[in-house]
Amino acid sequence: MFGLGAALLQSVSYLFSALFISRYQTGAVPHLILVHVVIGALSLLLLPFLWHPLAADFSAYGGALISTAVCYLFAQYSLYQAIRHSVASRVSPLLGLKVLVLAFLGSVFLGQEYLGIQWLAVGLCFLGALWLSASGGRISGAALAWVVAACCGYALSDLSILYLMQYFSSLPLLKASMLSVTLCFLLCGLGSVVMLPRLKQRHLLLASSPAAICWLLAMGCLFACFSELGVVFGGIVQSSRGLISILLALLLAYIGLDFADPVPARKILAQRLLASVLMMLAIIVFALGSELG
Hints:
The chain is an all-alpha fold and 293 residues long. 78% of the residues lie in helices and 0% in strands. The longest helix is centred in the N-terminal third of the chain and has 28 residues, at 58-85.
């Protein structure tokens, strides 16, 4: 449920971002900076309410925290570079390839063992991501290279989240996840503040709040999901945002909102829905493998 909550909130955050960019005619990178400045400010406000003495010993978890934030920001930068060389509808589904990177890293470097049926689930998620992206047309080589960089960054960030959550494992799950999130995004916010003076859209900070709030809540759910399920299974569950995003986009297009993507041709829509269902099937298959294991 935490993973599905993260997928839903991320999809809603993307919609708020699309509305913001359409309404104020800003670029994706300025909006990304604005959102993370807002998230950093929210984290600073929440931190006193979530504080625990464990957080005072920065040396015990600082490496994992910095790794989480730095790898996440690198991945975000790579993602937007990929979108510059292609379009979001082709790039975003390929983030499902992160699951394959996580499975490889976990198997080779962390000694994690997966059953054959779980590797099948990873393969289904991989195929679903490729199919979902290919339904919008071919992606350029430069965009694909940036997508791979983004997946590696997100994977390393996700693994760092595990170590961060393990340090706070004695706390209740929700408090541990939100404390970890606020500490992480406080760092991300500080990094974004450095870029803020260069922006001409600083007055739009408040308008970025809906996307920022949804993203902050999504990350709280995602950290809890990874703590409960691990990053591979959690990543597969997170990939359900593909289907959620498609359904939300169809709903908004039906309502007639002008910032929503136009409804694609029936054949392409059917391909995207089937690819998303394939990725949802991967969740079920991996869960079955977990039960067998």
